[in-house]
From TrEMBL:
Name of the protein this chain belongs to: Aminoacyl-tRNA synthetase class Ia domain-containing protein
Molecular function per GO: ATP binding; isoleucine-tRNA ligase activity
Biological source species: marine sediment metagenome
Start and end residues of each Aminoacyl-tRNA synthetase class Ia domain: 59-244
Entry keyword Calcium: no
Cross-referenced Pfam families: tRNA-synt_1
Coiled coil: none
InterPro entries: aa-tRNA-synth_Ia (IPR002300), Ile-tRNA-ligase_type2 (IPR023586), Rossmann-like_a/b/a_fold (IPR014729)
SUPFAM superfamilies linked: Nucleotidylyl transferase (SSF52374)
A GO biological process held by the record: isoleucyl-tRNA aminoacylation
Lipid biosynthesis as UniProt keyword: no
This protein's UniProt keywords: Aminoacyl-tRNA synthetase, ATP-binding, Ligase, Nucleotide-binding, Protein biosynthesis
Length: 254
């Protein structure tokens, strides 16, 4: 396994190497989960990079956050290296970790997380019933007023009616056309359920930005153009004017 000091290229895939050496099993067998070192003070003396990697693990950084920090340091030219003979205190934070050792709060790793309850001294853990995140988005008109427990517009009712508690419906809603099956839909479903009417009077829907092949720009496709590069090159007002004048607001932009 080698690493080029100039371009940082590994001549072998790191995940493949870790897999071949049974790295995940090794960490678990050595008490990697923290059970053997709980409530103990341990002095660790090592070289620069092992200590830096240990610190990122203890901070519960995931792979993306670790790479982001390294990129920021490379861009700024300021590196958080350990100095010769430097001593640092590392606070151990136990976090669910995947087989690569990165913090991972998805199932099944999050199921290993247990918190003590300050109210009853019992243990708390993830419940299997997880509601879809779109429910939170659809409940926005009510949730922003903490309905029915609180009230923005004062009402004498113990559980105030929506018309006395929140501004409903909204005059307009503005989002991309893809929200027809997303936010527009979830807002409408919950609004009709609780109020028997639409939560918005008007819909303003703008088109999507497409690549040179007419495909929607997407992170998963990797065909996105950095908008800040365009703004830095031409100026943000020019970019705004282009999107406003190139065609009708509701049409896609290529």
């Amino acid at each position: 396994m080698g690493n080029c000091g100039s371009c940082k290229h590994w001549d072998h895939d790191k995940h493949e190497i870790l897999n071949d050496e049974g790295w995940g099993e090794c960490k678990l067998s050595e008490g990697y989960e923290g059970g053997k070192i709980k409530n103990k003070t341990i002095l660790i003396i090592s070289h620069e990079y092992p200590l830096w990697m240990l610190e990122t693990v203890m901070r519960s950084w995931g792979e993306e956050q670790t790479l982001l920090v390294k990129q920021e340091q490379e861009q700024s030219g300021i590196y958080d290296f350990f100095g010769t003979g430097e001593s640092r205190e590392v606070v151990y934070m136990q976090a669910p970790r995947n087989k690569w050792g990165f913090a991972d709060f998805h199932r099944p790793y999050v199921d290993t997380v247990i918190f003590p309850c300050n109210a009853c001294d019992k243990k708390m853990k993830r419940v299997p019933e997880v509601i879809d995140g779109w429910f939170d988005s659809g409940a926005m008109p009510f949730a922003q007023a903490h309905y029915p427990f609180s009230c923005i517009k004062k009402s004498g009712a113990q559980i105030p009616a929506p018309e006395n508690c929140i501004d409903f419906p909204g005059d307009f809603i503005a989002e991309g056309v893809d929200q027809t099956r997303g936010w527009f839909y979830s807002l409408l479903a919950i609004g009709v359920l609780l109020k028997q009417e639409s939560p918005y009077r008007n819909v303003i829907s703008h088109g999507l930005v497409l690549d040179s092949y007419g495909r929607k720009m997407s992170k998963s496709r990797g065909n996105m153009v950095d908008p800040w590069e365009i703004a830095d090159k031409f100026g943000i007002d020019v970019v705004r004017w282009y999107f406003y004048t190139v065609n009708a607001p509701g049409e896609p932009k290529r």
